[in-house]
Amino acid sequence: MAIHALETPFHWRMRRLETRWYIDAYEKKHDMNHVLIKFAKIDFNIVQTAHQEDLKYVSRWWKETCLCNQLPFVRDRLLN
Question: Which SUPFAM superfamilies match (predicted)?
Answer without folding.
Answer: Terpenoid cyclases/Protein prenyltransferases, Terpenoid synthases
